[in-house]
User: Which sequence fits this backbone?
């Protein structure tokens, strides 16, 4: 809402603050470490043949703890137990191998509960949204994320300039052992961000030998290469693993895919071709006639597909190094550590900006051409003939993390787990563009040496064109993270149903964000915004598991019943305290049937990119008013607009109430069959969003009335802008002349304005059957949305999103088998279509259902061929285009690179 903002305008010393955070972590870890009071057996070596193996499809991960009583499954603090009342979805190494993807982002796009399922996740060279954010349940978030992404149960440092989101693409699939996803609120265990759920990447830790992997893929106008090398040694009491991974892929331009063409009239749709074209279009203000260059025929209009040469999918190169170390220091103490370094370089081609028809040329310009009676013409012009059809943006996102920890057995089955976690990311974005201020000045110039000739750009002084083309949007940010955590868990008392288990813990979290944005000629930083912010969070948490019935006292109709409760308190240095509980139950009326449910509250604290630390905070001045109320006058178009943009220091946490109820059934009459279903319900409120700046609803909906002032006075504008950086004007006072004043002042900063109610059913059916020739497997898993309602602003009625723009069903169906050394699988990714409103003749968007094939063959296990696996992936085998959508992009409800064929070779030495 409009009030005087508080801003930071000086880049603070992030490094010193980060060192202070690291020092606090070091002190905490030193305090955590203690003597051992009990003994455990040393870790056993892992057989080479099993070190890289796993089984199963996407499935509920309830059996993980049967193989390792020391494992901690995502969604609980307790060792050796599945999270009570919770549905945990997982992918193992076999699942990962079959996808043939080169990054963890692409891996998550295969999971129906994740919002970008069935798409091609695209990280761009932009400081706005360069990081693809996993989003379970597709809940809104601004600079942060409503889905928590973890690495081995701990957080990772964020990435981006205007984001603090974790970038999963830093993890190559080669280092991932499995992925566990909890599509429930998880703040009672993990704290902030876990509203939609938790994604936990568990990495490989033990491996003997050397393994190499290389894969090459190709599609129409596209190539991709990825390779990795892993070396490991397991010496019984410990192990060391090192992996280097490289990935590169080419770009795909819009012109390479027909479905992105701007003109949809051939399909009965709209022509979205631009009038910003070479040669230009010039409109006489008196007659309204347009004259298209270079012939300038009265009434002619030139149109072009201005985005044809822009990237649909940008070029990218990634390098990653990952290391894991474990060592049994004594019978009771185990040390472990993981570390990673990753760098992603992205190159994006974007259409060369031009003059979009709101800028004018007058008779004062020496090159003015009187095409009509008016001495003023509106200009729509492309600079493609001078600078080419595209301009290049480059970005580099580099990060590292180090996480050492100890496991200490302290008596009976009690264990202390301590962990430190530090990380840092460096983020740089360079967006080449044109200097719009120089364009305006050159059009308004009366001097032929400094004026722009829009009718014939070649006749313009080259120095003028060089000044116009010498401009860059520069963004740089450093994000840092430091954490210390201790958890103690064990058995309190033995009941007939089993042991009552307790886990308690504490955590210290520190993060900072230092960012800078400038809009200047290349190498100049005078017009820049710099900011710094940090926060610390002190947390305490606990979890209690009570087995009411179990092996000792269970019977028919009551084989087992377990209750759990967890609670977490987080004290934010900048947002105060919050307490989030969760309760759950798991009930087994029979050995083959499990019924489970849970209820909890969750929250997402405003990220540092959403509050005062954001470097995009500014007052943006437009010399016209393209966004107006329905009762505005035609002359209001030529009045200035003041837009407050960027972060908001008054943001509150986003909150949610979540609950679910489901079952897992393994019928004895059908060995190998697993059937699971879960009803989920999420009420997400205080969503951090930006008011709909470009939509008429801003002025027609009374709920947005506090976000704008029509005809603001000078005093109102000065109070609202405060000391924010001005873009587009020298001062607020300069906007108030004797005959013209600003039309509207809009507060477009991030605000707590929305709410979402969503409920549905997650389902999973898997069948695995050994046969005389090998095995067959069938599976279908997905999510079906029963209701999804959105409240745009507080006080508004909830609107049914399923009636406009949202599909109900997303699912994956697989069928495969193994015959000897040969494995094959077919996979259908399905996104249901949906109705659309307000798009003329189009009433519905179709479904997207590409089919992928996977084949592998293990060469004979002898001689030089021993340990060699050949793989073949054919994604989108029928080369399906995503569904048509009568908007500028031309498509929606899915994404694809086309028919992508990838051949791979994996070799163990």
Assistant:
């Amino acid at each position: 809402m409009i009030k005087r903002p508080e801003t930071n305008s000086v880049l603070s010393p992030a490094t010193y603050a980060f060192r202070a955070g690291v020092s606090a972590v070091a002190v905490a870890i030193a305090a955590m470490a203690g003597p051992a009071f009990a003994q455990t057996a040393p870790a056993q070596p892992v057989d080479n043949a099993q070190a890289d193996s796993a089984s199963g499809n996407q499935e509920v991960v309830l059996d993980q703890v049967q193989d390792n009583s020391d494992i901690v499954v995502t969604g609980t603090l307790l060792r050796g137990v599945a999270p009570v009342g919770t549905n945990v979805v997982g992918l193992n190494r076999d699942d990962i191998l079959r996808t043939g993807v080169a990054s963890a982002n692409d891996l998550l796009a295969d999971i129906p509960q994740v919002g970008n399922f069935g798409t091609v996740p695209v990280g761009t060279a932009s400081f706005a949204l360069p990081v693809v954010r996993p989003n379970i349940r597709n809940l809104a978030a601004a600079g942060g994320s409503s889905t928590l992404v973890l690495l081995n149960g701990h957080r990772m440092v964020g990435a981006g300039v205007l984001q603090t989101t974790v970038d999963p693409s830093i993890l190559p699939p080669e280092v991932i052992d499995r992925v566990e996803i909890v599509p429930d609120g998880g703040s009672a265990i993990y704290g902030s961000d876990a509203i939609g759920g938790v994604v936990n990447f568990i990495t490989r830790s033990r491996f003997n030998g050397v393994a190499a992997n290389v894969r090459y893929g190709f599609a129409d106008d596209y190539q991709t290469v990825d390779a990795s090398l892993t070396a490991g040694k397991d010496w019984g009491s410990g192990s060391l693993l090192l992996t280097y991974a490289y990935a590169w892929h080419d770009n795909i331009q819009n012109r390479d895919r027909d479905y992105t063409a701007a003109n949809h009239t051939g399909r009965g749709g709209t022509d979205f071709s631009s009038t910003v074209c070479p040669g230009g279009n010039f409109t006489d203000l008196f007659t309204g006639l347009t004259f298209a260059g270079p012939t300038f025929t009265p009434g002619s209009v030139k149109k072009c597909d201005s985005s044809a040469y822009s990237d649909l999918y940008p070029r990218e190169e990634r390098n990653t190094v990952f290391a894991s170390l474990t060592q049994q220091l004594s019978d009771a103490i185990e040390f472990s550590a993981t570390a990673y370094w990753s760098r992603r370089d992205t190159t994006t081609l974007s259409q060369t900006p031009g003059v979009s028809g709101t800028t004018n040329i007058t008779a004062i310009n020496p090159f003015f051409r009187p095409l009509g009676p008016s001495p003023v013409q509106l200009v729509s012009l492309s600079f493609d003939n001078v600078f080419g059809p595209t301009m290049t943006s480059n970005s580099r996102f580099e990060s590292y993390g180090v996480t050492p920890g100890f496991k200490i057995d302290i008596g009976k089955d009690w264990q202390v787990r301590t962990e430190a976690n530090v990380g840092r990311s460096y983020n740089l974005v360079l967006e080449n563009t044109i200097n719009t201020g120089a364009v305006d000045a050159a059009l308004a110039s009366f001097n032929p040496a400094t004026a722009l000739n829009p009718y014939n750009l070649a006749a313009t002084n080259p120095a003028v064109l060089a000044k116009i083309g010498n401009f860059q949007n520069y963004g740089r940010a450093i994000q840092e993270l430091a954490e210390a955590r201790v958890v103690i868990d064990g058995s309190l008392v033995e009941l007939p149903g089993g042991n009552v288990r307790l886990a308690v813990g504490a955590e210290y979290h520190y993060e900072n964000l230092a960012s800078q944005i400038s809009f200047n000629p290349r190498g100049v930083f005078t017009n820049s915004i710099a900011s710094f912010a940090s926060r610390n969070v002190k947390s305490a948490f606990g979890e209690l598991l009570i087995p009411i019935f179990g092996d000792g006292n269970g019977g028919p109709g009551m084989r087992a019943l377990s209750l759990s409760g967890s609670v977490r308190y987080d004290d934010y240095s900048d947002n105060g305290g919050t307490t989030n509980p969760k309760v759950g139950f798991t009930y087994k009326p029979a050995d083959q049937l499990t019924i489970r449910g849970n209820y909890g509250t969750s929250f997402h604290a405003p990220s540092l990119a959403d509050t005062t630390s954001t470097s995009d905070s500014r007052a943006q001045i437009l010399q016209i008013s393209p966004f107006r109320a329905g009762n505005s006058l035609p002359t209001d178009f030529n009045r200035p607009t003041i837009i407050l943009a960027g972060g908001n220091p008054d943001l509150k946490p986003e909150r949610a109430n979540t609950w679910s109820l489901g079952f897992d059934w393994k019928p004895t009459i059908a060995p190998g069959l697993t059937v699971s279903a879960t009803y989920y319900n999420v009420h997400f409120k205080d969503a951090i969003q930006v008011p709909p700046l470009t939509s008429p609803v801003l002025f027609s909906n009374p709920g947005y009335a506090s976000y704008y002032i029509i005809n603001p006075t000078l005093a109102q504008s000065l109070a609202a802008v405060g000391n924010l950086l001005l873009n587009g004007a020298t001062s607020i006072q300069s906007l108030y002349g004797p005959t013209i004043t600003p039309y509207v002042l809009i507060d477009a900063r991030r605000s707590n304005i929305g709410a979402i109610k969503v409920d549905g059913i997650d389902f999973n059916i898997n069948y695995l059957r050994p046969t005389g020739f090998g095995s067959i497997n069938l599976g279908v898993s997905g999510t079906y949305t029963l209701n999804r309602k959105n409240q745009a602003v507080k006080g508004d009625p909830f609107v049914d999103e399923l009636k406009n723009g949202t599909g109900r069903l997303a699912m994956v169906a697989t069928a495969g088998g193994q015959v000897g050394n040969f494995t094959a699988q077919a996979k259908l990714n399905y996104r249901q279509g949906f109705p659309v409103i307000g798009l003329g003749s189009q009433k519905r968007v179709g479904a997207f259902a590409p089919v992928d094939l996977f084949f592998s063959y293990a060469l004979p296990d002898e001689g030089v061929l021993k340990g060699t696996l050949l793989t073949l992936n054919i994604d989108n085998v029928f080369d399906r285009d995503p569904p048509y959508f009568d908007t500028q992009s031309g498509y929606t409800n899915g994404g694809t690179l086309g028919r992508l064929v990838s051949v791979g070779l994996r070799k163990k030495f």
